[in-house]
Each structure stands twice: as structure tokens, then as C-alpha cells.
Amino acid sequence: MNLELSNPPSDGISNLRFSNASDHLLVSSWDKLVRLYDVSTNSLKGEFLHGGPVLDCCFHDDSSGFSVGADNKVRRIVFNVGKEDILGMHESPVRCVEYSYATGQVITGSWDKTVKCWDPRGASGPDRTQVGTYLQPERVYSLSLVGNRLVVATAGRHVNIYDLRNMSQPEQRRESSLKYQTRCVRSYPNGTGYALSSVEGRVAMEFFDLYGTFATGGCDGFVNIWDGNNKKRLYQYSKYPTSISALSFSRDGQLLAVASSYTYEEGEKSHEPDAIFVRSVNEIEVKPKPKAYPNHAA
Amino acid sequence: GSFIFLNRQKHFEMASVKKDPILQVETTCGSLLYELQIIWDEVGETETDRDKMLLELERECLEVYRRKVDQANRCRAQLRQAIADAEAELAAICSAMGERPVHIRQLQALQKEKVKFDLNLASSFLVWLLQTSSFIYSLWCCFTQSDRVETIRKHLCSLYSHCSVLGMDFNEVVGQVNPTLSDPEGPRSLSDHTIEKLGAAVQKLREVKIQRMQKLQDLATTMLELWNLMDTPIEEQQEYQHITCNIAASEHEITEANSLSEDFIKYVEAEVVRLDEVKASKMKELVLKKRSELEDICRKTHLLPVSDTAIDQTILAIESGIVDATLVLEHLEQHISKIKEEALSRKEILEKVEKWLSACDEESWLEEYNRDDNRYNAGRGAHLTLKRAEKARNLVNKLPGMVEALASKTIVWEQEKGIEFLYDGIRLLSMLEEYNILRQEREEEHRRQRDHKKLQGQLIAEQEALYGSKPSPSKPLGGKKAPRMSTGGAATTNRRLSLGAGMHQTPKPNKKPDQRHNDGALSTGRRGLDIAGLHTRKQSMNPCEQLQSPLVRKPFSPISTTVVASKANIATTIQQQLLATPVKNNNGVTNLEEEKMMMMMMQTPKNVSAMIPIPSTPATVSVPMQTAPTPLNNNNNNARLIPEKPEVVEYSFEERRLAFMLQQSNSLIYA
């Protein structure tokens, strides 16, 4: 399969995620909308309007998800009903959102330099759903969650690692060793580590759970698959029209969704229209190769 | 017997007019009797026989009289019957019309008068006749008198009617014509002269009636005007309804008794005078009312009103009687209608002015709103405010066109009217001119700011390309002034090191050695700096060059590095070495890319200590860092680094993109 989704967003795509339960794809965009697609039928199942550009989104399950954005709000969206609740607010735009299955909490990171945890079960009620707020050294740029481990990457190249069971203090405080601003952090699927990408070249990153290999997408429009352990690139897909702003593997790893959407690295300029491509993933593209094998060229 | 003769004799003497036919008849009878007397003397008729003959003559005469009287009676009875019939008919008509049968009374009065008159006449006739002995004479009288009676009767009827209406005494008037006519006892003069005089009197009274009627109608007209002017309540007006209803009546229609009497006319006159006085006393009120009406119109059409002093002086003049208030009111009315005309011609432009002014209000509101940094924080009504802001932006976009259209319309108007279009005393075109100037100034200011910001932004980007981070303003999001940057040409405090790179960033050649206050650069916290233990590699050209080049920011150029983990290398490789690195283009796959990927830190907890330097300063420190004085930044985001150092803040792509979006919507206003 190599499919370009119909009805893509009309402005930049900030993130896209496959559902854990199906081939539904949740897409957040700078056009203030969160969209739900069914990839298997290439159809748009729903659209949800925010008060400002939506900067991140994630699934809870196939019936609901969470989204955050420049209107400072944290929203839960119930897809079929088309209902949305506001879990709460930050004081500045919210850049990231994750849902922790381990704790049943929604975790958000914002440019107001806090990470907040929310209990979505309180969403319908008049009470605040906020469970905790954790000050970061700088504006939060990326979050990653694996198991009970939360990795927070901020401006200034700070990295905080938390145990969700005890958020009072970060487990570790780090600095990125990359020269440039941290763009993205993703934890190893096995929870043993995390990968950082910086603005120098890579803007999107996703792990392929099965093999521990990961895909990166850059401003050059290429998606590469890497074997981190062997420090090798495994595969490169053909060039996409413009910068890769987001990547997501489907739950079974059979599909990779690629958001081809100018990420503003060169400021305001004209660019290719924003598009979402979904392609099949072949094992050969993602399976690690032992060192003995030569590098696989594109 | 002899008494008759004697009386006749007397009458005969009194009636001295020779030409009178009655006298002539009378003479004939007398001469006949005289002749009779002579014959009797000749014949030698005895006294007894003479008396017998005379008695017989009298008896025969009386019988003739009686017959004639009976005839006259019968005439009269017929006349009465005719009158009664006519009356009944009139009454029936009047009742059918639902009117008061005024005429009946008049007729009745007339009838009475007539009857009275007739009776008088008849009785005096009889008396007179009885005082004569000539039956032929009386017969003749009966015949010849009826026409005259009719004429006289007619005249007397008219006279009576006129007198009634005019409130004059009928008897007096009649008496003036001929005293005999008004004397019930005495005989009546029924001569031609009398009849003529009667006719003349009737005509005269008719003229008086017409005169008075016109006067009354004038008074009624004046009354109506005064009522209208003073808004007299309807109850007051109704009292005089019976007068004003005749305002257009003609002479013969006015028949009610005393409706044109002198008293009545005086009465009406008095009322008119009274109304006039009321009007005079209300004049001040009216003038003020008119003035406020004038002011109101002026205000609504934004013309300067008439000066108060002029009006006050006028009122004083009215009160002291110098000036006729009516004239003043007239003048005011004229002024008002003139102003109304003018207001009409101004209407279109005024409507446009209102639109323009309210658009200016929204413009001011929007400017204030844009300065408010909290405007995206949702509060109650934030959604409405956002909507208002959007509407305001649209409106402000239309403003220049609005002003243009308004100005050209005003110019056309001024040319047509030949006068300036004033708005509350100021020339409208001047107001528009002023607004345009202000707006231009504001636009200049904004443009300046924008250019400044752009320049800053580009400089920052340059630096970022070089050093991996950029100085930035205190707040992450736009809406404030351009970022305060270190002066151009100076590098930031950040050094860019890469994993395994052999080179490091060179400071500017002209950098003073004493500006090495960022020695802590090698400590962990230093942004943009790599951790100790790793070689650094210089990425690109001379920063000076980069900054001074025309703000062409190279696309994000990746660095080719090689991974070398060696603490020692840092120390040795640090010096001012400029290495130009070819800018990588973003197409194609090269080994460089792979190398780049290796830059990505695969950090595991185990490896950390090996890869990440200890926060404490390493031994090899003498790195002449390129430093630049950074402006004191109150919002020090990196408090846990070197607190005393003012830090500059970096932006992510998303922050910049959002800032640009906001700027876009703002800049629409000043476009």
C-alpha cells in the first residue's frame, strides 16, 4: 500500500498517531482541527475544531482521544459522539500530550514550562481534573512515555526523566548532548533508553516496536529507518514532497503514516501542500541487519 | 246721525291732502249729502221724514259695512288658515330634519306681529271707517290697500328678520321709518313714501348684516389661527364652535336671533383679544420651543446651533413689546425650514461619517487588544472577544477605502453647495486629512518595528545556523518588541560543539581575549555546547562573514561530523580555526547523512556517565569563547545554569510559526 489520504488538513500537520486498536489515524493540524481517519477506507471519520492551532494529539482508545494546542487547552474528544470536554488549561500553548495506560492519566507538556497530569475521568464534572503540575527548567518541546517512564525534553536542551509513580522529583535530569535544540524525544520501546533528535536535521522520530529500530523523518523530506544498536541506516523511502513533520507506525507495524508537511524551519515561505501518506512496511525495511551485512542503500 | 257728520267733518278737515283719492271720494259723499239737504229744503221735507231717511241711509250703509267686514273677516280667516297650514308643514319639515324649528318661532312672532298688525290695522280701519259715513270709500280702501299691505308686509317681514339677527329693536327701526307705523293705536301711514322708506331701511339693514357677518367671520378665522398656534384644548374651542362653523356661510344662511348683534360681536372680539394676549404671553414659550427645535435639528445634523445670546435678546425684545413676536416666530420658522433642507442634503455624508467614526473606535479597541498579551488566555467571553477582534480587523481593512469615498463625496458636496461641509464646527475634510496623517504615521511606526524585527530575526537565524541557538526576547511568543539581540557581528556565548568533531567554533578574530567569561561553557549546562570529552567541530564559516552577508540564511545545513570520544582532543583543538564547511544540500543521500545520524545520542543510563560530562568544569578550560554582551534579560529561563548570567532564549519552529501567525493577523490592520 502506498496511499495518500484524502481530505488532508489545510495547514501544517503537527502530529499524527495510529490507534492501538485499529487502523484509525488521529491527526492534529495548524488549521485548528483534529481529524480522525480510517486508513483502511481512506475516509475522514470526524473533525474537531479547536480555538487555535492544534499542536499534538493522541488516542485513548478507538472511541476517544486527547488533543492540545495553542489555545492553551487540554481537550478530550469523544469521536462517535463528536463531543469534547476540556480537561483543563495551561498558561501558554500546550505542545505535547500523552496518555498513560499505566496510570490512566493524560500528561501534557507546555511552553509555560510545566508538565501537567490530568485525570480524564473527571472530565465531565465541574471539578478540576488536574492531578499534578511539575515545573520544568524550560518550555517543554517533547514528551515520551514508555511504561511508567516519562521523558521530558525542553528548550535549552534539558531532559527530565520521571517515574510516573513518583512525580515529585525527576528521576534524572539531563542535558542533551546534541548541539542543537531538542526537537523530539522517543523512548525505547523496551524502556531502556530514549532517543533524542535535534533541529539540526531530524524533526520526527518513531520507534518500530518489534525490532527496536526506528524511523526518522527530516526537513529534507526523507524518511529513514535506522538500526540504532548497530548504528546503521536500514532503509530510506523515496522523497516526500516536503519536510516530514510526523511519523507513526500502526499497532501491528504493518503501516507507516508519514506527514509531509512543511515544519517552518525556514520561516514563512511557500511550500508544498500538506499531505498524509500511508505505506506498507516491509520487514526487510525495518529488520535490523547484523553488522556483517553491507549497508542497504536507498 | 249728526255725530257722524260731525266726525266726518273733522276727518275731512284733518285729511288735508287734496290729491288723496280718499279725500276725493269723501268730497263726493259730502257733496251728495249736501245736495240731499238742499233738495229736502226745497221740497220742504219734514224733520221727521228727514230723520227717517237718514236712519234708513245709515242702516243700509251699516249693512254694506257689515257685509264688507264679514268679507274681510273671511279673508283674514283664510289667511290665517293658510299660515297655520304652512306652519304645520314647516314644523313637519323641521322635525324631519331634526332641527330646532327656529323659523317657526320667528314665523310665529311674525305671525303674531302680523296678526297684531292686521288686527290693529283692521280695528283702526273700522274705527276710521265708522268715523266716516262713506261705504264706497271703505270699499275702495279695501281694494286699493291690499297690494300695499302686501308690500309693506314683505318689507316688514325682512326688517323683522334682520332686526332679530342684528339684535335691533324692530319697533324702533320701524318707527324711524314712519312713526305711524309703530303706533299701535293711531292710524298708519301707508303712503308710497312710507313704502319706499321701508324698502330703503330693509336694504340698509341687509348691508349692516353683511358687514357684521364678514367681521364675525374674520374674527372666527383669527380665532382658529390662534388656536392652532397655541394648541388650544378642544374643550375651549367647542364653546365657539357655533361661530366658527359659519366661517364660510353666506348672508342668507345666517338667521339666528342675535347672531350678529353688536353685543355678540363684541363678545367674540373680546375672546380674540384674550387669545391674543395669551399668545403674547406664550410667545416666549413658543420662541424657546422653536429654538430648541432648531437646536435639535442642528445637533442631529452636526451643525453649530444659533447663538444663544441672539435668542435671549430677542425674547427680551418681545417681552418689552419692541418686537412683534409673530415676526420672530416667522423668522424662526423660516430658519428651521432652511436648516431642515440643509440637514437633508447632509444626511448621506453624515451617515458615512458615523460609520467612519465607529470604525475608528473599533480600530482603537483593536490596537489596545493587540497590545494585551493575555488576550489568548481563555476567560469568560474570550470567544466573543476573538470574534470582535476578527470583525474589527475586517472593518479596519475597509477603513482606507471608507475614508477615500467619504472625502470624495464631501468634495463633491462642497463644490455643489459652494460652502464647506462642517461637522460640529470643524471642516470634515480637515478631520479626514488628520486621520490619514495619523494613520500613515502609525503605519510607518509599525513598518519600522516589523523591519526591525525581521532584521533581528534574520540575524538570530544566522546565529542559530552557526551556533545552534539564538538570542531571543524575554517572552517566547510575539506581541512585544523585536528581540533584543547582541549587537551584530558578535557571536553568542554558545559554542557549537559536535560529537566527535575535531574542530570547534572559532571566535571572531577581533574578539578581545578578556571576554572569556563563558568558560563555564564546557560545563554540562551550557547550551549548544557539547559535553566534555568529545571533540568539537566547527561547522561553518566565519561568523562575521555570515552575519555581515546580506541576510541570506542558508537552509538548515547539517554538519558532517565524526564521532570521536576523547576528552583530550578538546583542549588541543581549541583555537581560532576557521574551517569552511561546504553547505550540504538537502537532496540525495550521502555518507554525511549517516554520520549525522550518528550524532544522535543513543543514551542509556549505563552509558551516560561515559558520554556525558560531569557538570563540574573540566580541567581544560582555556577556550577563548566568543562572547558577546547579551542584554540583561530579566526572564532568565535558565536559572539553574549560571544564574548571574543573563540568558537568551531559543525558539522552536512551532513557537516561531505561531508567532508569525499572530503577527500576520495583526499586520492586516496596518496593511
From TrEMBL, chain A:
WD repeats lie at residues 87-119. It comes from Thlaspi arvense (Field penny-cress). It comes from the Eukaryota. This is Mitotic checkpoint protein BUB3.1. SMART domains: WD40. Keywords: Repeat, WD repeat. The keyword Repeat applies. Signal peptide: none annotated. The keyword Repeat applies. Pfam families: WD40. Gene3D superfamilies: YVTN repeat-like/Quinoprotein amine dehydrogenase.
From TrEMBL, chain B:
It is found in: Cytoplasm, Cytoskeleton; Nucleus. One of its GO terms (cellular component) is cytoplasm. Residues 62-96 form a coiled coil. Pfam families: MAP65_ASE1. Residues 463-523 are annotated as: Disordered. Residues 468-480 have a biased composition (Low complexity). GO terms for biological process: microtubule cytoskeleton organization. It comes from the Eukaryota. Gene3D superfamilies: 1.20.58.1520. One of its GO terms (molecular function) is microtubule binding. Keywords: Coiled coil, Cytoplasm, Cytoskeleton, Microtubule, Nucleus, Phosphoprotein. Belongs to the MAP65/ASE1 family. This is 65-kDa microtubule-associated protein 3. It comes from Thlaspi arvense (Field penny-cress).
